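Can you please make up a protein's amino acid sequence together with its fold in token form to help me picture the idea?
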Amino acid sequence: MIQDKSKKYTALKCYVDFLLKKSAFRRVECYGIEKIPQNSAIIYAANHTNPLIDALAVLAIDNNHKVFVARADIFKNPVILKFLTFLKMLPINRKRDGIENLSKNEEINDIVINALRDKVPFCIMPEGTHRQKHGLLPLVKGIFRIALQANDTFGQTMPVYIVPVGISYGHFLRPAGSSMLVQIGDSINVTQFVKDNSDANIALQINGLRNKLSEQMKKVILDIPNEQNYEGIMQLVQLQGKKDKSLINRFLTAKENIKNIENDLISSPEKTQQLLDKAKEFYTKRHELNIGMNSILKKNLLLSMLGNLFWLLIGLPYFVFCAAVTSPITLLSQRLCSKFEDKAFHNTVRFLITLALLPLLLLLFSIIVFAVFGWKWGVVFILLFIPSFFFLHEYLRLIRLFISDIKFLRYKNNLFNIIKNYL
């Protein structure tokens, strides 16, 4: 399975990458590919905020096949098991899955080591669990044990590297119409680290690697460790941000603003805390009203609203068509998502349903139209259907923006009265 480079896998990977970049997200940027070591064993370590989408983001970095591990409980469904296995995803058991199941991980580790020996990159989320926040949880030991085991096995002939990956989303729970920024950080040469720390025992080596990886991962994500002031810092960073077209420029600006706020908490703790409290109040009120930051940061709100309204009216007929032909995806997604209390899984469910149903709907509807109306209308239908799912989500995004703009016009004074004396 690991060394399989079949045309089926390659075709599916291209399809998955295309949907990820054109359907799941409106904008995707990736930086730092040149930092990935060549002719080495690569272990990707990415931050974890989205159960499946994070893995697909790493998969889309380049054209190389990759091996992944995922929590074992999602492999219980036989259909999902077959799909994940085809995507080279392996089940990993955690303590919560039962101590008796942890021994099964040894077989998985052996598969991973063999893959690394064959220069097939391996990806793991070292935080061990996901959460929808900008920050880094303590890293679990599994990734470092695998890295050290790989180094013991073949480190003398091929170096082992851990490559940090930072994934930043414009919106954690609503990716469609949002953005995704992927950054490759500075890699950690595990082989050289072991040579430099040969006198240290395994526990000390693991702790040393964990500290180095945490440091490198924090450089490629927005890290807000201050849980007490998280909402206030996040809101203040957004208010101070600039509406830049480049995702990396937005990231760097936000990173600098977070650093400045943390410094202000040290130099002027009382004044800064008052500002953060007001920013948190602003954040809470804005989310209650469901007003997006796009509305707040616009320089000419009325002009933007008129532009959006124009496109909404022009695109309405095609939107109705798009909503109709993709309704099976929408309805099934809503039904299945209702079964998951953790909203982070909704993105995964919607993506997998779209992945499976979109080509089937195209084939089914095309056959019907060709049979009933002839080949000319069949060709017209295909041309209209192909961009339908992408247009649908772009249209829904414009609706959300337009509604948000209206609400901001109505509640603008109430919102800024909260914080006007502090800006």
User: Anything to note?
Assistant: The beta strands are 27-31, 41-46, 67-71, 89-92, 122-124, 160-169, 179-184, 188-189.
